[in-house]
Amino acid sequence: MRTISPKAIIIFALYMGLKLLQTWIYAWAGSMIVAESDNFKNEIYTSGWQALGNKSVRHYIGIMLVQRPIALKACGYIPISINLFTSVRY
């Protein structure tokens, strides 16, 4: 039977830790993008845009308010977020 050296175990643990950190960074960035997109939409809504005199500006703001929030997606389907990171089973 072949034994595994302590050096190999440490290198493997460091590698796995860095890969988890890399995945967490992408998940955190995806969550922050969605949160800031929602905050932007809320700020537009509370800015008093209804009182603007220009009808076309009110129309464009209305279109902005009904759009989906910006999100990072894996393969165009799965939104990348902290919730996805914590729900993945090892």
TrEMBL record:
Keyword check for Transmembrane: yes
GO terms (BP aspect): signal transduction
GO CC terms in record: membrane
Ranges that cross the membrane: 9-29
Location of this chain's protein in the cell: Membrane
Phylogenetic lineage: Eukaryota, Metazoa, Ecdysozoa, Arthropoda, Hexapoda
UniProt entry keywords in alphabetical sequence: Membrane, Olfaction, Receptor, Sensory transduction, Transducer, Transmembrane, Transmembrane helix
An example Gene Ontology molecular-function term: olfactory receptor activity
Main localization of the protein described in the UniProt heading: membrane
Natural source organism: Bracon brevicornis
Record's protein name: Uncharacterized protein
Topology in membrane: Multi-pass membrane protein
InterPro entries listed in its UniProt record: 7tm6_olfct_rcpt
